[in-house]
Amino acid sequence: MAAFEVRGGRKLHGEIIPQGAKNEALQILCAVLLSPEPITISNVPNIRDVNKLIELLRDMGVKVGRVAPDTYVFQAEDVRLDYLDTPEFVAQARELRGSVMILGPLLARYGRAQLPKPGGDKIGRRPLDTHFVGLEKLGAHLTLEGTDFYRLSVPGGKLHGASMLLDEASVTGTANIVMAAVLAQGTTTIYNAACEPYLQQLCRMLVRMGAKIQGIGSNLLTIEGVESLGGTEHRMLPDMIEIGSFIGLAAMTGSEITIKDCQIPELGIIPDTFRKLGIHLEFRGDDIFVPAQEHYEISTYLDGSILTVSDHTWPGFTPDLLSIILVIATQAKGTVLIHQKMFESRLFFVDKLIDMGAQIILCDPHRATVIGLDRHKQLNGITMSSPDIRAGVALLIAALSAEGTSKILNVEQIDRGYQNIDERLNALGADIRRV
Ligand SMILES: CC(=O)N[C@H]1[C@@H](OP(=O)(O)OP(=O)(O)OC[C@H]2O[C@@H](n3ccc(=O)[nH]c3=O)[C@H](O)[C@@H]2O)O[C@H](CO)[C@@H](O)[C@@H]1O
Ligand SMILES: C=C(OP(=O)(O)O)C(=O)O
User: Fold this and answer.
1) Å from CA of 293 to ligand 2 middle
2) What is the pLDDT of residues 329-367, one digit of tens each?
3) Where are the domains of the chain?
4) Fold identical between 3-19+238-434 and 22-235?
């Protein structure tokens, strides 16, 4: 297990370029299974989860060529369905959440698919029912083996369009159903579809491949199935969670940082949510400039009551940035209630922040009240372990702002989603050693 040794208390300075988006990449990579023609994808982040999915696709028979450090060409001409029966496949698919999105494309193109319960962050229950109910509505037949192996087949070989109202706007669930519906016979309508930018990116890529999708960006998608899809080129958006993490890092360490090429219109309410914590952000063209701020003050509601920051499906605030919001609130002036509605085990990492000296009350698994220290007292460096990808980065931010040295164990969690984070932050003046 790798660890980071972090000497805190340094001011960072300079420019940083966000990586391509992890959660977009996982959708887009699965979509290459839909066509026998070459698909070129650029701005691919070099991170564990993405590399594992690329390896999985290669092992399934997809031709993979790396034509530049961040650009790959994929061609799924001969997919080896027999690979799905091997223990190697099961082990690979279990390692990341994104593997679940091979189901839709495989069913649409080959009429069969299977998967063990996928991996990803252990942050509470992560049901897949929306995926399966949607695929069943399109005509797939699901067989469950135990509670953690799913086999799907399509009697007659071809999916059929259907109308459906999803019980929740699941991101990967919507992606799976869309990828199945684009090659189904007839028309599919998906109401209560997730509509976040990465899903819009997926839909736009599918349209360039020949799919017929209407309503992109809304929660009502209408898809007219086509016979086959062709190749295309696609460029990944910058990772909005990384952008938010850098904003948080700058605020917490009192540093001046410019985050380059953010595609600001795609960030939704993320910038304004940071502003509610009193963090100044300036848009300079497509860059976000975060000035060094000695103090930042959490706003209240108009009637003076304590602010709540909570997650919601897009266009609400993403759950993946709540851990970052929570950590930066520990050094703000004022109080905020963090309400993580979607996941029930994502706030337990606050114990580590409390050990570092932060003032936090974990009210219940979903809610934590943070009473900001307003820098009257710095956090203390400690040894801690990274429980999940976003808590891991929140702890890294805490360690970079803390007095003394911290050790963060289990940084593989951070490596799942942040590209060379130690080197990139050291280039801004941080002192992080991988040990
Ligand atoms: C690989 C990938 O893309 N992972 C992201 C994806 O996961 P993923 O697609 O797995 O997450 P889902 O959107 O399915 O659901 C997230 C959680 O929220 C709950 N839920 C969801 C929708 C809803 O309307 N109500 C509700 O309560 C679900 O039960 C689940 O517990 O989306 C999540 C929610 O943005 C992000 O945290 C993950 O980083
Ligand atoms: C929860 C996350 O990832 P995954 O769904 O891959 O576990 C995340 O990216 O914050």
Assistant:
1) 30
2) 999 999 999 999 999 999 999 999 999 999 999 999 999
3) 3-19+238-434, 22-235
4) yes
Q: Closest ligand 2 atom to the C-alpha of 120?
A: 7
Give dist(CA 62, CA 57) in Å, integer.
5
- Closest by Cα among 273, 319, 322 to 23: 319
Indicate if 121 belongs to the active site.
yes
333: annotated binding-site residue? no
Phi and psi dihedrals of 210, rounded to 5? 115, 0
> In degrees to the nearest 10, what's the CA dihedral of 5, 290, 19, 126?
80
Q: Would the pTM of this model clear 0.90, i.e. be above it?
A: yes
Helices (H), 192-239: 197-208
Kindly state if the Cβ of 388 falls inside 6 Å of ligand 1. Answer: no
**Residue from 121, 340, 393 whose mutation best tests the ligand 2 pocket (most atoms within 8 A of CB):** 121
Q: Ligand 2, atom 10: nearest CA belongs to which residue? A: 320
Instruction: State whether the beta carbon of 48 lies less than 6 angstroms from ligand 2.
Output: no
Distance, in Å, from the CA atom of 314 to the CA atom of 194, rounded to the nearest integer, reads: 7
ipTM (interface pTM): 0.98
pLDDT of residue 340: 97
Complete DSSP assignment for 140-179: -EEEEETTTEEEEE-TTS--B--EEE-SS--HHHHHHHHH
Identify residue 161 by its one-letter amino acid code: G
Q: Determine the length of the chain.
A: 435
What residues form DSSP beta bridges with 368? 338, 362
Residues 435 and 5: beta-carbon distance below 8 Å: yes
**What pLDDT was estimated at residue 147?**
83
- What CATH fold (topology level) applies to the domain 3-19+238-434? UDP-n-acetylglucosamine1-carboxyvinyl-transferase; Chain (3.65.10)
Q: Is 342 annotated as a binding residue?
A: yes
Contact in structure between 365 and 374 (CB atoms under 8 Å): no
Q: Which residues of the chain have pLDDT under 70?
A: none
Cα dist. 130→65, 117, 302, 387 in Å? 34, 14, 38, 26
Report residue 226 as tokens.
């086509």
- The finding on whether 126 has its CB within 6 A of some atom of ligand 2 is no
The closest alpha carbon to 166, from 129, 121, 130, 202, belongs to: 130
Atom from ligand 2 closest to the CA of residue 126: 5
Q: How far is the CA of 78 from the centre of ligand 2 (A)?
A: 30
Q: Report the Cα 4 to chain-centroid distance in Å.
A: 22
CATH class of 22-235: alpha beta
Residue whose CA lies nearest to ligand 1 atom number 33: 171
Which residue in the list 49, 121, 239, 388 is annotated as catalytic?
121
